Amino acid sequence: MGLFERLKEGLSKTKKLLIENAEALFLGRTVDENLLEELEDVLVMADVGPKAAGSIVGALREKVKKGKIPDSVSLKKALKEEIKSALQDGNGIKITGEKPFVILAIGVNGVGKTTTIGKLAKRFTDEGLKVILAAGDTFRAAAIEQLEIWAQRAHAQIVKHKSGADPAAVAFDAIASARAKNADVVIIDTAGRLHTKINLMDELKKIKRVINKEMPSAPQEVLLVVDATSGQNVIHQAKMFVDAIGISGIALTKLDGTAKGGIIIAIRKELGIPVKLIGVGEGVEDLRDFDAGEFVEALFE
Amino acid sequence: MFEALSEKLEGIFKKLKGRGLLREEDIVSALKEIKMALLEADVNFKVVKDFTERVRVKAIGKEVTESITPGQQVVKIVYDELCSLMGGKHSKINLSPNPPTVLMLVGLHGSGKTTTTAKLAKSFKKDGRRPVLVAMDTARPAAIDQLITLGAQIDVPVYSTRAEDSPIRICADAIKKANSEGRDVVILDTAGRLHIDEQLMKELEEIKKEAKPKEILLVADAMTGQDAVNIAKSFDNRLNIDGIILTKMDGDARGGAALSMIAVTGKPVKFIGASEKIEALEPFHPERMASRILGMGDIVSLVEKAQEAVNIKEAVKLQKRLSENKFTFEDLKDQLTQIRKMGPLENILSMIPGIGKQIKGMSVNDKELVKIEAIINSMTKQERGNYVIINGSRKKRMAMGSGTTVADVNRLIKQYLQMKKMLKMFKSGGQSKLAKFLNFG
Description:
The complex is a heterodimer.
Chain A: H1 3-26, H2 33-45, H3 50-65, H4 72-87, E1 101-106, H5 113-126, E2 131-134, H6 143-154, E3 157-159, H7 167-180, E4 185-188, H8 198-214, E5 221-227, H9 233-245, E6 249-253, H10 263-271, E7 275-279, E8 287-289, H11 292-300
Parallel strand pairs in A: 1-4, 1-5, 2-3, 2-4, 5-6, 6-7
Antiparallel strand pairs in A: 7-8
Chain B: H1 2-16, H2 24-40, H3 45-59, H4 70-86, E1 101-106, H5 113-126, E2 131-135, H6 143-154, E3 158-159, H7 167-180, E4 185-189, H8 198-211, E5 215-221, H9 228-239, E6 243-247, H10 256-265, E7 269-272, E8 282-283, H11 286-294, H12 297-309, H13 312-323, H14 329-341, H15 345-351, H16 355-358, H17 366-377, H18 381-385, H19 392-402, H20 406-425, H21 431-437
Parallel strand pairs in B: 1-4, 1-5, 2-3, 2-4, 5-6, 6-7
Antiparallel strand pairs in B: 7-8
Helix pairs in contact in B: 1-2, 2-3, 2-4, 3-4, 4-11, 4-12, 5-6, 7-8, 9-10, 14-17, 17-19, 19-20
């Protein structure tokens, strides 16, 4: 099965509602204010958010006014274009440059950080890369054990300290170990933290500082893991994480439910952060590179 | 966020000011903004539509409280409606008359089931019960270890098996064991699952059949978006849940999902989780949740305070005196007393749209009000009624009596005269306008 089919299959449940609504909306309708408003509602229902939905439909409205959208078929096309241009390309994570390539995974509680890291590690080791995982979630009960199981599955090495240890020290050791062993990739797990907790955000800053000191070009990737089920608060989350340590990309998980993950459109529009990975299922192969074109096609075809 | 919202609201309020009864156009325009606020809070789109329609019908023709704008009144109606929708039956967990009481926690991946399980156990333990936790999540790596670690932290036993037993078997064994060990509450920590995963949802139905839980609680993340309705509906349709536990409330998500889930299932939110530490769960307060979702708590409390404080009779009396141009120091004092009934002045003023911005950064001193009252108290009845007789020696006496200076007395008289002049122009003026003309601080 090709990548496109796989993605489409994974997204089929996801997109069902949006598509059904969208199809019903488009079918043989005249393009008028009612249709545009309904379209806006559909986007809101997909968690795009009232603001971003308003601006997408606003752009369409302008085109309608200028007579560029004569019928519902071209409206559909224009909507796809509008979303696609809002998303642009995130295109995965490229392992390049100085070794090791350090990926720091962050996010609020329960979004799927550890699982995403496990799958990502498996993918890299399958590609023949040498991967070291850093068990930086020293807070949650059994988080280290959870990452250990993923390390075994992925044939990756793991650097861990005791529960309650300083996560910055774990990160430091993992990079030192990667250098000694000439590893290609280091993926650092961190405890889930709500962006409103100052001390935990400070801890994150410290982790980044320590990584930076050991290896000035690292972390090459700061990945914010986002649950597709989440709503508008994600924008606020992302802003706070950007302010604290910066974000280079987003991994959108749990897209195999009925949640539509429309929040990524709002994030891209408001913060300009690209989506790099998406999770469309429980299997290791279900962690995919994000591709705006395919994403929108799969969403609307 | 708060300020942004207040500023936005001022816009519509300006249009709506100074009307007696709520008219349809007031309501529609206020509801438009409220609809946006609810959507931004992640209340489901359809729930918002139904809800605002109900409010619209209810609000038409309602009276607008003195000194409150129609828009503010609509906010209050919305708030009350939110409270009544989310509240009512107070949420407790029902225990079974024949122990052990079996509780089953279900939900999506990462919603916080395991942590919540431990918190529940801790609160039962605090009540003197003998709870036990059952680790049924054999799917997620190390989920069992997580529960065992948490159990050890709160000193509650955890039943678990390493073998690849079916969850049905695990819970059957666990309940048997709990019975023989005299445990009175058995809490089942099930694996996270998607509500559309047919096989795993069926598994939950089978667990329910086997365990006959007294209550099934859906654990849901406060950050959940529009999909909350589908999630809650699916779990409720399959399992007939008894309530919802809303987790991660210590973040700043507005938590509109709570309203969505209550609206589609009719089931109460029983607890909220607002800490990563294993502390007891907190009870759910509909009023707090309503104002969190709406994000307009300042306006709501302003309306409430105004409703409490405004004595209609006094207002009528003042109105009459104003129309006769008989505003005296006595009336001024009454007004000040009323304003002060509403709480610290700075809070009151900042709650009034339009004034909030002006006093930003400026310290409003309640002491100034105390001073004014003291001076008026030092006046004789004649002086209060007729300022013309206040001469130099009277001023001196007032200053002495109130512990102020003659300059303070002069300033008050000057302000009083200004106010009197202004009030002539605003014969229908209410007290918020009065407050505006007082030159505080």
